[in-house]
Each structure stands twice: as structure tokens, then as C-alpha cells.
Amino acid sequence: MLSAKSKQCLALLLALLLAAPAAQSQTADDQSGLAQLATGSPAPHSLSIFALPAKSLFGAQKSAAHLRASAIGTYALGCLAGAQQLPITGDTWQVMRLSRNRNWGTPQLNSFLERISEEAKAKSGWNGFLVGDMAQPRGGPMKTGHASHQIGLDADVWFTPMPDHVMSAAEREDMAPIEMVKNHSTLNQDAWTESRDKLIQTVAQDPQVARIFVHPPIKKELCRWAGNQGAWLAKVRPLYGHTFHFHIRMKCPEGMSACKNQWEPHPTDGTGCGKELAYWYSDAPWVHKKPPPGAPKPKPRPPLTLAGLPAECRAVIAAP
Q: CB–CB of 262/211 below 8 Å?
């Protein structure tokens, strides 16, 4: 007889299969597979669950795995055990886009956001954080939106300041953020203010922060404002897509041995305001070379599956 834990796992898989008619013929194998996952003795090569896209498995989770809190793997290839949900409203933050259910993280990330949002208000006059995507309840790959945010140590914070009232669910869903750039090389000078420079500096100077991602014109503005001085600038990395928010990435917390830190940035000029930034103002990141005429089309990559994630992620999926 299956344990209650195994039955819950089987219910999850059946729900996934109902959402994917082509896989219904594998129901018996999947039931067997999830039962084995729940007992900690999977046989990966014989289980159809290992063929399902990982983003479907993790995207279907509505609650955290009842395990010891742990960031597992790397920021873009991992999962999250024992996640905690950031409260949707605090004195100095409000969570946006509640329907996504992506306001989960390690206890350390949640505590950090609560603390740093208070510091930003005190040091830079920033009214409060509008928090966008963090992680899913069990981390892992998302169906849409991000390659990273998989281990509960990433958080997006809007450049739009928090309003002076508690927003309704509809406001949080429908409010449009303020765009800080006009294109990949031009800052929106009508929107940018010095308070935003101070905001990024405050967050980047925190020792728990590994990186901050922003769109290239924002990095350029920070370099100008800081006079190309300050070690904190090295943490601020130009990257596509960060036009209305900045992306905070924390270092792996002490004691989480399954968590893998990213390499620490050490730009040659100490700040990343020189050659590194110049690269983003060249054509290289934006103009993609076309394949030569007659060249075969590259085969699409197969979807990432549970088998491609750290082994500990099997227990995260199987946990109640």
C-alpha cells in the first residue's frame, strides 16, 4: 500500500498528465515512477516522469516542499527545498503579479528583502520595493520569463517606487512599470532620478549580494553618477531585458552545501565601466550572425527534464 506521501506525489503527476493528453498512455509508468521517487529509490531510465519537461513539473507546484530549507544547484539549473513565501505586503515592500505565485525564496532571501528595503528607505529615500518575480514554490525552471530564479536567491525589484497605499490584487496585476530606458543604449532621462542611483548603490554595497543585473544604459548612468569609482559597481552587470527592474542575486547562504555560487566578478578596471560596458555598446550583443546559405537548420534542444537537474531535486518534487 502506498504511503500518504506517495499518494500525494501520484496525485500531482495525474494532474500533470491530464494537462498533457499525449502523455496519458504512460500513466501506469508514471505512477510507478513517482512512488519510487517518494521512497528515494528512483530508476531514472525506466520512468516516464523523467521525460516530462522540468518546467511543467515545477511550474505545477502550488506549495513548498516540506524539507529543510536549501538552495540546490546553480541559479539557472536547480531547485528549492523548504521555501518560504514573502508576505505580499510589508512596511517597505509590496509583491506584484500575485497570480504568478513566484514570491518564494530561501528564508535568507526573504529576510534580506525585508531588511534592505528598510535600508533603502533610510539611505536613499526610496519609499518601498515593488517586488516582482522571485522563485516558484519549489524553484526549478519556469514556464515563462526566466532562465534563472531557480534556487530561491534571485529577486526582481521594480524601479517604480511603492505607492503610499496598500494596493489591491487588481492594481498589482494591472499596474504598468515605468520604463527606465528608450532602447539598448539610451536612458530615459525623464524617468531616471538620483534616488535610483542611490537605491542601486545601497543594495550593491550589501555583502550578501553577489550581482545586480540592469540594462546597459542604467549601468552607464551609474558609472557616470559614481565617477567610475567604487567596488560596488563591479557587482552591477549589464544584461538584456532589465529595463524596468533590477535583478538582485544573493550569494549562497552558509551551510547550504548543495548551492553553487556563481564566479565573482572582477572586471579589469575594478568597476566594469570600461571594456565590459563598451562591449554592450557594440553590435556584438545585439546583432546575431545569420547562418550561411544552405546550412542545415540547427536541431531544437530537447526540453530540460528532471533527470537533468541535481539529484536532490527528485526529493523536492516527491516531497509533500
A: yes
Residues 26 and 17: beta-carbon distance below 8 Å: yes
How many angstroms separate the Cα of 110 from the Cα of each of 83, 117, 179?
Answer: 10, 11, 26
Q: Is the pLDDT of residue 8 over 50?
A: no
Phi-psi region of 145 (alpha: psi -120 to 50; beta: other; left: phi over 0): left
Q: Which domains does the chain have, with CATH numbers?
A: 4-63+304-318 (no CATH), 70-280 (3.30.1380.10)
Amino acid code (one letter) for 68: R
Look at phi and psi of residue 184 and say left if phi exceeds 0, alpha if psi is from -120 to 50, else beta: alpha
pTM: 0.85
User: What digits encode the pLDDT tens for the residues 10-51?
Assistant: 444 444 433 333 332 334 444 455 555 545 444 444 456 778
